[in-house]
Amino acid sequence: MEGLLAFPLEQLPFVIIALIIAFTFHEFAHAYVAYKFGDSTAKDQGRLTLNPIQHLDPIGTLFILIAGFGWARPVPVNRFNFKNPKLAGVLVSLAGPLSNFLIFAVAYGVFFLFSIMGFLSIPTFFVEMFYMIAALNALLFVFNLFPFPPLDGYRIIEDLSPPRIRAKLSQYEQYGVLLFIILVITPLDSYTIWPVMDFVMSAMFQSFNMIYEFIFSLFL
Predict the structure, then answer these.
(1) From CA 24, how far away is CA 43, in angstroms rounded?
(2) Which residue of the set 10, 27, 128, 213 is catalytic?
(3) CA quadruple 90, 95, 97, 102: dihedral positive or negative?
(4) 32-58: string of b/e by CB count within 10 Å (b at 16+)?
């Protein structure tokens, strides 16, 4: 069975916990910000909740366990209900990745604290779990900001574009989806998506290492 998975079998419990947290908060953030800007579509469909069952997509979750990438159930958004469509559209799209960034920051802070307090004999399970939560949320933060449909990064660009450019983007969106799929499922990802993700994620971990070293040095 392990040969079918993108993660070692012993890491599977941590991956599942991390995915439930990451996907749930990501989609909830989209729904919450949309609701605050006047669109109750997600709320009316029961998506303004932290119940994971409402957000997880069985096939998308299975794909991330097998292939290393996947998806949750997209939150429905009706931009015509927004009081300020351009601003609201950008913030709704940004809310999901930002939620993953905040979870990364908190989880890595807990992991860092556990690491420097090893003398307390904190169970390895918790140390590994918080590291996995941090790592997967960092991955989803970066991945979702790529400018390919249907990712949040593309939606942000779409909302920031003038009407003429936006019409062109919509016209060619299907080709963008196809290009994105090719980049993800072929060896091309090793030369395009993953080098960027590795660079940004390494920078995130190094930056927060320095931040937490400074913070904890003031108290410990």
Answers:
(1) 14
(2) 27
(3) positive
(4) bbbbebebebbeeeebbbeebebbbbe
Could you confirm whether 27 is annotated as catalytic?
yes
The mean pLDDT values, 10 residues at a time, for the chain of 220 residues are 60 88 96 95 95 89 74 89 90 97 97 78 85 94 92 92 83 83 82 90 96 86
- Dig out the tokens for 72 from the structure: 């949750």
Report d(CA 75, CA 98) in Å as an integer: 16
pLDDT the model gives residue 154: 92
Torsion of CA 67, 204, 31, 47, to 10 degrees: 40
Structure tokens at 62: 């299975």
Task: Work out how many domains the chain is built from and give that number.
Answer: 1
Angle made by CA atoms 191, 22, 6, in degrees to the nearest 5: 45
Q: What is the largest CA-CA distance in the chain?
A: 61
What is the CB-side half-sphere exposure of residue 69 using CA atoms within 13 A?
16
Domain that holds residue 138: 2-217
Question: For residue 175, what pLDDT is reported?
Answer: 82
**Whether the model pTM is above 0.85:** yes
pLDDT of residue 34: 96
Question: What are the percentages of helix, strand and coil residues in the chain, rounded to 5?
Answer: 75, 0, 25
Classify residue 108 by burial, with Cβ atoms within 10 Å: 0-12, 13-18, 19+.
buried
Q: How far apart are CA 167 and CA 76, in angstroms?
A: 21
